[in-house]
Design goal:
Structural class of chain A: mainly alpha
CATH superfamily of the largest domain in chain B: P-loop containing nucleotide triphosphate hydrolases
Number of domains of chain B: 3
Strand order of the largest sheet of chain B: 6-7-8-3-9-10
Helix content of chain B: 40-55%
Radius of gyration of chain A: 20 Å
Distance between the termini of chain A: 62 Å
CATH class of the largest domain in chain B: Alpha Beta
Largest sheet of chain A: none
Largest interface: A-B, 38 and 37 residues
Structural class of chain B: alpha/beta
Shape of chain A: globular
Helix content of chain A: over 70%
CATH topology of the largest domain in chain B: Rossmann fold
Oligomer: heterodimer
Largest sheet of chain B: 6 strands, mixed
CATH architecture of the largest domain in chain B: 3-Layer(aba) Sandwich
Distance between the termini of chain B: 45 Å
Chain lengths: ~325, ~550
């Protein structure tokens, strides 16, 4: 296979890792029925914190742990405000986005542009020697492997364990989950905290690996992309993973066109393409247009195809559960 | 099996929803709890099923005091509740719904659960596909799933809240048979909460009546209906058969109309509605009654405005593709196609619907109001011409939760002025409150009113000079008294020559109030000319397809 293509694919796997981790984190948060809209700010703040802690202590592990704690803390603010103060999750999340972004600028000033430590390159023995696949998937660092395993883990968890079944019920109809003995609020806290920790980890994986170093607003926008990917992925782990790779792939393509100057188009148009395509896909999937095209699928496969195209959010998303 | 409750009380602030209720339920019997809306039936059942906890009182099961703090506890004690709107997960499969709530295991154990589910369904005579999505099920099937699920959890006391709302006659008789078997053969306690006297008389052995939170009466069945009604309301309500008021003048003519419904396409509907006539639509849930009414009301079918967008879509396509052939830059063309799909996609869908509608319909299809074809007019237009439609989902489709009565009155005002005349809206609201005896204040938010009062508000908002009112299940969830009031308001309208078309799952209601009945069955319609000679059993047969 063409070595340029292989290395591009490897780059896509690498660059998509933070988006993958953040969107899987948001996936379990939203599946539990909570919207954590603060992703963009949380990722910035966590990225800054991971870099700063690693810079000062020299310990990568410490940086990653602090980043995850920050993500968890922000997420817990969202759910606590919703449960205890009955505040709107979207409003709280949005305010936290702005707050965290400003905090990252404020605290990160003196780390801006500094030389930092990178998570060590750790190819997996034997597997890395597989042609193409080895280079694409198994010649990275541990965070990237984690992002791949995470997708499989989240999928197994949500669709093949009883706790995952409860998780799906939680976001769908909390009252029904409650009468079946699920402790709704407690589990929401658990999943939201776990999701938040993953978002923090996504921040750390930017500043310690994918976009090495810290600069004001260095990851700006990626949180929103992760949120969009969750919707694009129809709240399903593998579709979300596909979405993340798709977006990063389109960006790589745009970069390539820009460098080679093949199309002779303003850079903005190329940069816009992923968004336009994502919008088109979203409209296609959510408008029911896709469903009406299902007529061409043989009836036997129709339910499966319908399931695949499904893009309904968890029904109780963003609502607060109270037993009345 | 024996369930005793002692001095159960529950207060919400100053309101006593349950006031020292004591009773003993015995195994093998079917109990009914009757009461008008707000009598405290639901509260009592929620306390028994653990969804709410009592302010004071004791529950004793087989002479062991039971502490019930959550539905899970209740199930552990053998008390299970089937909620009116079954508490299940719509986008999950039947099997997944069945598994969730079972004693915890780490993995799903689908195969084991599926075998278990199928075996239990077979015993009960239910026919559930474990891999179907719950959202594709009818309410009756969802109830069956919940019953199987509760029984598999070892439930010995089964509480059902209004189980016959929204299920077909056939499903109802199957449900009743199941409940009887459970009580007789397995010595279970079955408790039915209902406001439908006919159902209670058909199924139950004992009747408890609640009024204003207190247990006011207890009878063994059979027992005179009048006595039950008197116990429920504290007074007798005489149900008078309404006098026919229609004239010979037809106002609406429907000729060879076909309506696509959820299960079938209803072919070839012909109907003439006369002034002041009441027409009841009978049929299984989802047989096309609603689609028929919505079509007549100009909702949910392509109208001329949609045709216009379809034409715009066609022209747009032609233009864009024409341009594409001229241009050379690939990306610009991609952008154009993107815009094409973005803007024109929905319009194309409309076009597709329009074509499908035309293909289904004979060229001669007509809906005529007072001799004018209204087939391609939309709802807003038709409202001006005197056709109004009230959906069954009062708070979902008809009214706006969070707005006050005055807001609604202002919204319904059809004025060309840009400002809102609040004074007039307020006056009209006051007037409506007196005229329609609405229990509520002008500035109460609509969702705080009871169902019956919400329906009265909906009726008061309709323009006065209507030719035809279409109502989907006008008395859904209302008790006998509220339902009677709604009907007297509706029947009053006939004096001005307004015709009424309504659908209802309650066959008695259809027979009582209709001048003629249109029966929807398996894609066919049959017109019944003389409902006074009709029995519910005969009507049920017609619905089931026997002629």
């Amino acid at each position: 296979m063409d070595p340029v293509l292989t290395s591009t694919l490897a780059d896509i796997v690498r660059n998509a890792a933070p988006l993958l981790i953040a969107s899987q984190g948001e996936l379990i948060t939203e599946r539990a029925g909570v919207v954590n809209l603060s992703l963009d700010g949380t990722i910035l703040l966590a990225a800054m914190a991971a870099f700063a802690v690693t810079y000062n202590t020299g310990s990568l592990g410490m940086g990653i742990v602090v980043a995850m704690l920050i993500g968890m803390l922000v997420a817990l603010i969202v759910i606590s405000a919703s449960v205890f103060l009955k505040l709107n999750q979207i409003a709280v999340g949005f305010v936290l986005t702005l707050l965290c972004a400003d905090l990252s600028t404020f605290f990160g000033r003196k780390y801006s542009g500094q030389q930092g430590t990178e998570i060590p390159y750790a190819p997996i023995p034997i597997l890395e020697d597989i042609p193409v696949i080895g280079e694409v998937f198994f010649q990275h660092n541990i965070l990237i492997y984690f992002s791949l395993l995470l997708v499989i883990f989240v999928w197994l968890w949500t669709y093949h364990t009883r706790l995952g079944l409860s998780l799906r019920g939680l976001g769908e109809h909390p009252a029904a989950a409650y009468v079946r003995g699920t402790r709704v609020q407690a589990w929401r806290f658990v999943y939201v905290a776990a999701g938040g920790a993953l978002v923090g980890l996504a921040g750390a994986s930017y500043s310690l690996s994918v976009k090495l170093g810290w600069r004001e607003g260095s990851t700006l926008g990626n949180g929103w992309i992760a949120l969009a990917i969750v919707i694009f992925g129809g709240w399903r782990p593998f579709r979300i993973a596909f979405g993340a790779y798709f977006i990063v792939g389109l960006r790589a393509l745009a970069l390539y066109f820009q460098q080679e100057d093949v199309l002779n188009l303003p850079i903005q148009i190329i940069n816009m393409t992923p968004w336009v395509l994502m919008l088109v896909t979203l409209i296609f999937v959510t408008s029911g247009l896709a469903e009406s095209l299902l007529v061409i699928v043989p009836p036997r496969w129709r339910p499966a195809a319908q399931n695949l195209l499904r893009a309904k959010p968890p029904a109780a998303l963003g609502s607060n559960f109270e037993r009345s | 099996m024996r369930l005793e409750i002692h001095n159960i009380s529950k207060s919400f602030g100053p309101l006593k929803a349950n006031d020292h209720i004591s009773f003993t339920f015995e195994g093998g019997r079917i109990y009914a709890i009757l009461g008008e809306n707000g009598a405290g039936k639901s509260t009592l059942m929620k306390i028994l099923s653990g969804y709410q906890s009592a302010s004071s009182g004791q529950i004793i099961i087989d002479s062991n005091p039971a502490q019930i703090n959550s539905p899970h506890h209740a199930i552990a004690h053998g008390i299970g509740m089937l909620y009116q709107d079954p508490l299940d997960f719509a986008p999950l499969t039947v099997l997944e719904n069945y598994i969730e709530g079972k004693p915890f295991t780490f993995l799903m154990r689908r195969r084991e659960a599926e075998a278990d589910l199928l075996a239990r369904c077979k015993i009960l005579g239910f026919n559930l596909n474990p891999h179907a999505m719950v959202e594709s099920l009818t309410v009756g099937e969802r109830q069956q799933l919940e019953i199987v699920r509760l029984l598999s959890l070892g439930v010995r006391i089964l509480i059902l809240d209004e189980p016959t709302t929204g299920i077909s006659a056939e499903q109802k008789s199957q449900l009743f048979q199941t409940l009887k078997n459970l009580a007789r053969e397995q010595n279970m306690i079955v408790i039915l909460v209902s406001h439908k006297l006919a159902d209670v008389e058909e199924l139950c052995d004992e009747v408890l009546v609640l009024r204003r939170g207190k247990l006011v009466g207890y009878r063994s069945l059979p027992c005179e209906t009048d006595i039950l009604v008197e116990m429920m309301f504290g007074k007798r309500i005489s149900t008078t058969t309404p006098q026919p008021l229609y004239t010979d003048k037809p106002i609406l003519k429907i000729h060879k109309l076909s309506v696509p419904a959820r299960l079938f396409t209803i072919q070839n509907i012909n109907l003439e509605v006369r002034e002041g006539e009441v027409i009841g639509l009978a049929g299984l849930d989802g047989s096309g009654q609603v689609e028929f009414m919505r079509t007549v009301a100009g909702l949910g079918r392509p109208t001329w405005a949609d045709q216009l967008t379809a034409i715009v879509a066609l022209v747009g396509m032609w233009w864009v593709f024409g341009k594409i052939l001229d241009e050379s830059s690939a990306v610009l063309n991609l952008a154009r196609i993107a815009i094409l799909i973005l803007v024109l996609g929905p319009m194309l869908k409309t076009l597709y619907l329009y074509i499908r509608q035309r293909a289904n319909n004979d060229q001669n299809t007509q809906i005529m109001l007072n001799g004018k074809n209204i087939g391609w007019r939309g709802y807003r237009d038709l409202l001006e011409r005197g056709i109004a439609y009230l959906a069954a989902g009062r708070l979902e489709e008809g009214l706006v939760a969070g707005l006050t009565l005055v807001d609604h009155s202002a919204l319904a005002e059809r004025s060309s002025l840009p400002h809102v005349n609040w004074l007039r809206a307020w006056r009209r609201t006051k007037q409506a409150i007196t005229d329609f005896s609405i229990k509520g204040r002008p500035f109460s938010q609509i969702q705080t009113l009871s169902g019956g009062n919400q329906q009265r508000v909906s009726l008061s908002l309709l323009p006065t000079n209507l030719r035809l009112i279409l109502l989907e299940n006008p008395t859904r969830g209302l008790d006998v008294e509220s339902a009677g009031h709604i009907w007297s308001l509706l029947l009053n309208r006939r004096k001005q020559g307004t015709a009424i078309i309504f659908s209802s799952p309650d066959l008695d209601e259809i027979i009582d109030y209709s001048d003629r009945i249109l029966v929807f069955s398996s894609g066919q319609t049959t017109l019944v000319e003389n409902p006074e000679q009709m029995t519910t059993a005969r009507l049920g047969e017609l619905i089931g397809g026997k002629s």
